[in-house]
Each structure stands twice: as structure tokens, then as C-alpha cells.
Structure to design on (157 residues):
């Protein structure tokens, strides 16, 4: 069914990404604008807290997303990269409401940076050997980070 273990790992990870996407709930109206910076910040916080909840509820699946490494010189298939990009678009949408002036490539990069910060809080906060924190504390820290970033972006200074 799979040509090698890498193909199997990608198939399992794709199922995890789809499960995560479903946990995030509907995207909203296609092309529908988010009404202002407050709503955009709320959506980013909602996405971050959903990420935390998913990591807590599915620790092995979540961990597998980041453990698999393709063989040297081999990249993830285009279909897998496209699925990741589709999920990142969920972050890009509210960022577009905060910074409609940003060109799309910059907004994509910013979405990945915000994800990286969120992932760092979640990964380190849930790591029992490093700096495990209660989920409620992680949620507060995540919301603080996301709202601070959203406020700074909305100011455009």
C-alpha cells in the first residue's frame, strides 16, 4: 500500500492535519472579511488555543507531525506542502485583517512566524521533562503573546 516508511508517515501525518483542521471548525465565509483588528486578534487567539487543545488531546499524533524527517535530499511531496499551506492560510486570513497593506509573501512569512511562536509555547509548555506548565497557564501565556503581536501589527508603527 505504501512504497516505504516515509510515505506511510506522511499519510498518517496527513490524517492528523485533517483531524486538526476539523477541530478548528469552519473557516468562515469564503473571501469574507474579518471585521476589524479586535475580531482578527480574537480569531488568532482562538486558533492558538485550539492548537494547544489539539496537542493536549492527541499528544502522539501531534508529536509525530514534527518527528518525521525525510531522507537527506528528499523534500515533502507537493500535495503535503499544499495541505500545510492550506492550514497556514487560516492564520493568514486574520493577519490580512490586521495588516491589509502587507503583500501576500510577507503575510505568509508572518503567519509562519506566529505559528512558530505558538508552537514553541505549546511544545515547551507540554514537555514534562523541560518546563511543563498547566494547560490553563499555557493558554494565558499564548493569549498574551498573540494579543500583543496583534496589537503591534494593528498599530503599524
Amino acid at each position: 500500500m505504501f512504497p516505504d516508511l516515509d510515505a506511510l508517515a506522511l499519510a498518517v501525518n496527513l490524517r492528523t492535519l485533517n483531524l486538526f483542521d476539523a477541530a478548528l471548525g469552519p473557516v468562515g465565509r469564503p473571501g469574507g472579511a474579518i471585521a476589524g483588528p479586535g475580531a482578527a486578534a480574537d480569531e488568532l487567539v482562538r486558533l492558538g488555543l485550539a492548537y494547544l487543545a489539539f496537542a493536549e488531546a492527541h499528544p502522539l499524533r501531534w508529536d509525530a507531525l514534527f518527528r518525521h524527517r525525510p531522507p537527506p535530499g528528499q523534500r515533502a511531496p507537493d500535495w503535503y506542502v499544499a495541505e500545510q499551506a492550506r492550514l497556514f492560510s487560516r492564520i493568514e486570513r486574520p493577519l490580512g485583517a490586521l495588516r491589509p497593506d502587507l503583500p501576500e509573501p510577507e503575510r505568509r512569512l508572518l503567519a509562519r512566524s506566529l505559528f512558530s511562536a505558538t508552537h514553541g509555547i505549546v511544545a515547551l509548555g507540554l514537555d514534562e521533562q523541560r518546563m511543563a506548565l498547566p494547560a490553563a497557564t499555557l493558554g494565558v501565556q499564548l493569549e498574551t503573546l498573540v494579543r500583543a503581536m496583534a496589537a503591534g501589527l494593528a498599530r503599524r508603527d
